[in-house]
Amino acid sequence: MRNKLSNTLWGLFFIVIGIGIAGRVMNLWEFEVFFEGWWTLLIIIPCFISMIQSGFGVGSTVGFLIGVLLFLSYRVDLNFSVWQLIVPAILIYIGLRFIFQSAFRKPIHIEKSIHVEGQQYSSGDKTEHSTVFSHQRIRVDNEFNGTSLNAVFGAITLDLRDAIINHDVEINASCVFAGIDIYIPRGVQIKTNNVPIFGGVSNKSMSSHDPGAPTIYLNSTCMFGGIDIK
After folding, report:
1. What is the pLDDT of residues 65-113, one digit of tens each?
2. Sequence-ordered list of residues with C-beta below 8 angstroms from that of 184, at least 6 positions apart, any chain
3. Which of 158, 204, 195, 157 is nearest to 176 (CA)?
């Protein structure tokens, strides 16, 4: 449901841009794509859609806050530098997350359903990994039930070559001015559903041709970044 909503939002975004440009060409109204501070929307929009798709992850939320602060610096006359607020805003958000995550975060339980292909699909026991202006390496050598990856001005490497995957799993990923490398094990299939904005997904893996093999479903949004599957 969230993936469908995020795709709908992206569709509406491009429709509005297209209608705006068409109206300007026909002299129906004034419309400027490259207004002052327009580039901050390249941070705000992907992060906002990622928050809808995968929840309030660290990477998407921090990226959204940074984008909003930078946008306000162009639209509002402030007597201080917004750049100086970015680090305090990140620290405050991380602190609030540490304090309240145990109180408001619901425990995750394994939920299994049957796909048309007959494979079990697990939506529980998922992990979440986020990075902002840094590089994070994750190596999984036990049972893998899915994860969420968020990279903003950084990089994430997810190594699943030694992971145990006995059923279909889902990976939700978003990268904004960042890169994500995913190493998958042999004997699994990979299916991708990507929203590319000046970015994309490259699949160089040797996927299994066995129709009964477990499948990794990758749902991703790439904005000036890319995901490499190896």
Report:
1. 888 888 888 877 767 676 777 777 767 766 666 566 544 344 433 344 3
2. 160, 161, 190, 205, 207, 216, 229, 230
3. 195
| Tens of pLDDT, residues 39-72 | 888 888 888 877 776 666 666 777 788 888 888 8
> Which of 55, 79, 104 is the endpoint of a domain?
104
Tabulate helix, strand, coil % of the chain (nearest 5): 35, 30, 35
Q: Which of 213, 120, 215, 229 is nearest to 173 (CA)?
A: 229
Report the alpha-carbon distance of residue 147 to residue 175 in Å, rounded: 14
pTM over 0.90: no
Helices (H), 76-223: 83-104
Same domain, 123 and 92: no
CB proximity list for 205: less than 8 A, separation 6 or greater:
184, 190, 229, 230
Q: How far apart are CA 164 and CA 92, in angstroms?
A: 37
Phi, psi of 103 (to 5 degrees): -85, -35
171 confidence band (pLDDT: 50, 70, 90)? very high
Residue keyed to tokens 């929203």: 195
Looking at the fold, whether 220 and 116 belong to one and the same domain comes out as yes
Alpha carbons 29 and 164: distance in angstroms, whole number: 57
Residue 167 shares a structural domain with residue 95: no
Boundary-marking domain end, from 58, 76, 104: 104
Same domain, 58 and 158: no
